[in-house]
Amino acid sequence: MNDRLGRGAGDQALTAVAALLRDSVRDHDLVARMGADEFAVCVRDTDPGEAAAVAARIAEIVRGPVHAGEHELLLSARPGVSAGTGVTAAELVRRADTARYAAKASGGHLVIYSIELDERAEAAERLGADLRHSLEDGDFHVYQPIVELHDGRTIAVEALVRWIHPVRGFVSPAAFIPIAEDNGLIVELGEWVMRAACAKLAAWRSELGDAAPCYVSVNVSARQLSEPDFAEVVCRILDENGLEPRALLIKVTEIAIFGGASPSRPSRHCTARAYSSRSTTSAPATRHSACCAPCRSTS
């Protein structure tokens, strides 16, 4: 919101949400801002069974139109709930925060804390640590050929992120990609895949000559696309491997574009020299897809 409408509008929206929360509870209840866009509501003297109903009511209130200056905004809430007696305030907040993370992962549905959430979070932390080590050891990568149907000739390859852990064995992308996105490793992982794929293509060209694939395709996440230096990273990887931009196809989902990341914003930071670009509209395993290829702007 700050990027699109300005910091002033963001502050006004937070103030409006705080007022909505304050008006939705009783005088002796407590509303506090915990982080950038995170709020906590402590509702006292209620039965544990009422917590979910109270949270659902508050979330529904927040989903209504919120005015921030001249803007009318539609917001959403990802409520996590904890309840109980004989528990410290700090522990209640920790449990609610754990439930909130689970709500975020579930797409925004209300989640009530349970001990299973802690166990799941601990497992995710261990998997995240293993992900870091495997990234350093290079335990990723599979290349899928792209062929001409009429003669079966391989014209390109797609770099797919597949994790073969030395102990866990095959780890599904559905298990580790969300964790990488949550802890920020998705940016480093995506750059590693792009660099390794370009290096492999350069090696194939050296070994196979004209028989080498024409280009390599890599998937880019919304988090990568929103990095300010994304275009510079792409250009640097191409230069390191002596490849022209048309040798690299970058596949971007529509969710990455319309969900907030803008491919045009980082491209303004490209270094000089003009290049042609390659694009396509196919992206396997996604409901929404669009693709773009890097293009350096002329200075």
The DSSP helix count reads 11
Distance between the termini: 31 Å
Query: How much of the sequence is in beta strands?
Result: 15-25%
Tell how many strands the DSSP assignment holds: 12
- Unreliable spans are 260-299
Task: Please describe the topology of this protein.
Layout: H1 2-5, H2 7-24, E1 30-33, E2 39-42, H3 51-62, E3 65-68, E4 71-74, E5 80-81, H4 89-105, E6 111-112, H5 115-137, E7 140-147, E8 154-165, E9 169-171, H6 173-183, H7 185-208, E10 215-220, H8 222-225, H9 230-240, E11 248-252, H10 254-258, H11 264-267, E12 290-292
Parallel strand pairs: 5-6, 8-10, 10-11
Antiparallel strand pairs: 1-2, 3-4, 7-8, 8-9, 11-12
Tell me what the structure shows.
The chain is of the alpha/beta class. It folds into two domains: 2-113, Alpha-Beta Plaits; 123-292, Alpha-Beta Barrel (TIM Barrel). Helices cover 44% and strands 19% of the residues. The strands form four sheets. Strands 7, 8, 9, 10, 11 and 12 form a six-stranded mixed beta sheet that branches. Strands 1-2 form a two-stranded antiparallel sheet. A two-stranded antiparallel sheet has the order 3-4. A hairpin with a 2-residue loop joins strand 3 (65-68) and strand 4. Helix 6 crosses helix 7 (185-208). The longest helix has 24 residues, at 185-208.
